[in-house]
């Protein structure tokens, strides 16, 4: 059995070189959240046009040349992979997008989502994709809804005593 266990361990554990390769893939990562105090509602969601989602917490930012100010992300030139989510409550329909403010172009549209204005169910518009920026650019996570919902249209609080997390985006530089 010792030989079988040795073979299992030898074939199962990543070598230092393999592990370093995996870690290298995640060095250039930034994650930004909208974080509010426990019990704080997400805010009023007004219909009619795309609005910038609040991103006020840096979870991690290891991308050289990446920064965030007033919920606007600055990224250096390069190729990036991202995932993002934006919740809405009782707005009938909603959709997020990632907008390149420097070029005035839409990088990616989020999933169409429906939620009834008469029930207390919320859901997220989610998106993921890859994009290339030729020059340093500013981007925004934006969101649009069909029906205005006061107080918690941008997400409902659960008040568990820890932070309320609403919109979020994770960006990884891949080139």
Helix and strand layout, with pairings?
Blueprint: H1 2-12, H2 16-24, E1 29-36, E2 51-52, E3 57-61, E4 67-69, E5 72-75, E6 78-89, E7 92-100, E8 105-109, E9 113-115, E10 122-133, E11 137-145, E12 164-173
Antiparallel strand pairs: 1-3, 1-12, 2-11, 4-5, 5-11, 6-10, 6-12, 7-8, 7-9, 7-11
Write up this protein.
The protein is mainly beta. Residues 12-19 have low confidence and may be disordered. Helices cover 11% and strands 47% of the residues. A hairpin with a 2-residue loop joins strand 4 and strand 5 (72-75).
Helical content stands at 10-25%
N- to C-terminal distance: 46 Å
Number of domains: 1
Mean pLDDT: 88
Give the percentage of residues in beta strands: over 45%
Question: Summarize this, please?
Answer:
By secondary structure, the protein is mainly beta. It contains 2 helices and 12 strands.
Task: Quickly list its features.
175 residues, mainly beta, 2 helices, 11% helix, globular
